[in-house]
Amino acid sequence: MAILYALVARGTVVLTEHSAAATNAGAVARQVLERLPDGGADSHVSYTQDRYVFHAKRTDGITALCMADDAAGRRIPFAFLEDIHGRFVKTYGRAALTALAYAMNDEFSRVLSQQMDYYSNDPNADRINRMRGEISQGGIDTSPPGNNICRACLHVPWVHLAYLYPVR
User: Which positions ≥6 away from 112 have C-beta within 8 Å?
Assistant: First the structure.
């Protein structure tokens, strides 16, 4: 499984978390939350711990963080974090700005679990590789836009179009 741990937090207050493996990921994740750049600015960062990488995405004061295998790269974990952040904000909205620690854990830890499984195991989770596969199978038209212009009109060179307009 590529993504082994995830949480959503406001500052250093963990609102929900889920772990797919018995590790010390929770303790390390809290240290990562404390190390995130101050000021509440939006950020995307990654920290390495042994053979795992902690990826964090902070937007509008809400941080989504996950621990993934180093082999997972950055694209899949950050796609996961984008998805989780969107789902969390859509579900809880402004309530997340004042919620107590673990207030959303009962409901949202199941979402974390499901999405961790999806992004770790489903090949459709990687949109870029999915698109590459569709292109190689001929499922997507990769010709540049505008290729459906009238072929009969192509015999007129653009230089001669100036003669169609009255000259003053």
Answer: 6, 7, 8, 16, 17, 18, 84
Q: How many other C-beta atoms are found inside a 10 Å radius of the C-beta of residue 138?
A: 8
Q: CA 121, CA 51: separation in Å to the nearest integer?
A: 19
Backbone angles phi, psi at 61, to 5 degrees: 85, -5
Q: What is the pLDDT of residue 36?
A: 85
At 84-123, the pLDDT tens digits run 999 999 999 989 889 999 999 999 999 999 999 999 888 8
* Residue (of 60, 53, 67, 56) closest to 3 by Cα position: 67
Nearest C-alpha neighbor of 49 from the set 33, 25, 72: 25
Q: To which residue do tokens 């995130």 refer?
A: 36
Query: Where do the DSSP E strands lie in 30-164?
Result: 43-49, 52-59, 62-69
Residue with tokens 């107590």: 100
CB contact set of 75 (below 8 Å; sequence gap of 6+): 126, 128
Distance CA 165, CA 33 (A): 66
| CA-CA-CA-CA dihedral for 34, 40, 42, 45, to nearest 10 | -10
Residues 1, 17: Cα–Cα separation, whole Å: 17
